[in-house]
Specification:
By secondary structure, the chain is α+β, with helices and mostly antiparallel strands. It has a single domain, classed as Ribonuclease Z/Hydroxyacylglutathione hydrolase-like (Metallo-beta-lactamase, Chain A), CATH 3.60.15.10. It has seven helices and 13 strands. Strands 6-7-8-9-12-13 form a six-stranded mixed β-sheet. Strands 1-2-3-4-5 form a five-stranded mixed β-sheet, with helices on one face.
Length: 216
């Protein structure tokens, strides 16, 4: 396996910005750069990586607030989320004012992502799954080879994403978790947008919001 991962907690919300890279080429992607650009770039430099793209799971400010200045600084494209997420990405300046974050720019990705798309990183390929509910255009990134899922704010250790925001949908979120994530191998490591890592198997058995008695 050549896909490597390091998470960098950013913003006052302690969002798990993920640094993903191919260990063969040292090409890297920054997933969900919500803020704290210098902290993120220090981790890139410490590993002598070459960032080739920014990936977004969704458009909330703690995940996307630093996207545009970072993309310009690195000269790299932005890929994701799914195009329904323009609802949130267009509102990033207002989100910043609402939550007391530094000023943020609206984001228009270079590439919108859809269910079934893939993103490449050196010699690695990640599958894109559209998992709406927390937000309408939320996507997650899955590497079957590495047994790794970058889940954004869909699934957490013992919890799930909030659905009380505009255009949130509780049933869509439950359906996405059970229909798209819980069919992945149980040993798959889940990297949530906040908090500790977990596994698909642990959440199938113990998560009070989506656990299924058949797996206990």
């Amino acid at each position: 396996m050549s896909l490597k991962l390091h998470t960098v907690p950013v913003t006052p919300f302690a969002q798990n910005c993920s640094l993903l890279w191919c260990d063969v080429t040292l090409n890297a992607a920054i997933v969900d750069p919500g803020g704290d650009i210098e902290r993120i770039l220090a981790e890139v430099a410490a590993r002598d990586l070459t960032v080739v793209k920014i990936l977004l799971t969704h458009g909330h400010i703690d995940h996307a607030g630093a996207t545009m200045p970072l993309a310009r600084r690195l000269g790299v494209p932005v890929e994701g989320p799914q195009r329904e997420e323009s609802f949130w990405l267009d509102q990033l300046p207002n989100q910043g004012q609402m939550f007391g974050f530094p000023p943020a720019e609206a984001v228009t990705p270079d590439r919108w992502l859809e269910e079934g798309d893939t993103v490449t990183l050196g010699e690695e390929t990640l599958a894109v799954l559209h998992c709406p509910g927390h937000t309408p255009g939320h996507v997650v990134f899955y590497s079957a080879a590495a047994g790794l899922l970058i889940a954004g704010d869909v699934l957490f250790q013992g919890s799930i994403g909030r659905t009380d925001f505009p255009r949130g949908n509780h049933q869509q979120l439950i359906d996405a978790i059970r229909g798209k994530l819980f069919v992945l191998p149980e040993e798959t490591v889940v990297v949530p947008g906040h908090g500790p890592y977990t596994t698909i198997g642990d959440e199938k058995r113990h998560n009070p919001f989506v656990a299924d008695a058949r797996y206990r």
